[in-house]
């Protein structure tokens, strides 16, 4: 197990849980579960060949990781019904973007 792997998945699971516990105190568990569920955005990796490439940057490579999609997620934070999901998706994109830098 490499440091890159540990940091990447830590950012995908521990960081969102930390955000939920710090900023969504009344609904910590629910928000954490929604944040974790936003990891399903990685389903777009199934469209790539190979499906997994540890050296590939997901940002702007996969459709749900595109700059346009990220913009839509950002807009979603302004609307209460989509806010938590949009934040989860943006946290996911931040984790992937940081992964691209390593």
Task: Please provide a written account of the structure.
It is a single chain. By secondary structure, this protein is mainly alpha-helical. The protein is 59% helix and 0% strand. The chain has 4 helices and no strands. It is globular, with a radius of gyration of 14 Å. The two termini are 15 Å apart.
Number of strands: 0
What would you call the shape? globular
Looking at how many chains there are and whether they match, the oligomeric state comes to: single chain
| Number of helices, counting only DSSP H or I runs of 4 residues or more | 4
Q: Give the termini separation.
A: 15 Å
Question: Which structural class matches the secondary elements?
Answer: mainly alpha
Helix content: 55-70%
Mean pLDDT: 92
- CA-atom Rg in angstroms: 14 Å
SSE topology string: HHHH
Which regions have little confidence, pLDDT < 50, spanning 5+ residues?
none
Query: What proportion strand?
Result: under 5%
Q: Tell me about the biggest sheet?
A: none
Kindly list the characteristics that best describe this protein.
single chain; 102 residues; mainly alpha; 4 helices; 59% helix; globular
What's the helix and strand layout?
Layout: H1 3-23, H2 28-37, H3 67-76, H4 83-101
Helix pairs in contact: 1-2, 1-4, 2-4, 3-4
Can I get a quick summary?
Helix 1 runs antiparallel to helix 2, helix 1 packs antiparallel against helix 4 and helix 2 crosses helix 4. This protein has 102 residues and is an all-alpha fold.
């Amino acid at each position: 197990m490499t440091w890159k792997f540990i940091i990447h998945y830590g950012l995908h699971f521990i960081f969102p849980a930390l955000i939920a516990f710090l900023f969504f105190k009344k609904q910590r568990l629910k928000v954490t579960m929604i944040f974790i569920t936003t990891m399903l955005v990685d389903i777009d990796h199934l469209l790539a060949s190979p499906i997994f490439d540890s050296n590939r940057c997901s940002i702007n490579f996969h459709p749900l990781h595109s700059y346009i999609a990220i913009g839509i997620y950002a807009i979603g934070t302004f609307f209460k019904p989509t806010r938590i999901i949009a934040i989860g998706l943006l946290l996911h994109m931040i984790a992937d973007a940081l992964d691209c830098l390593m």
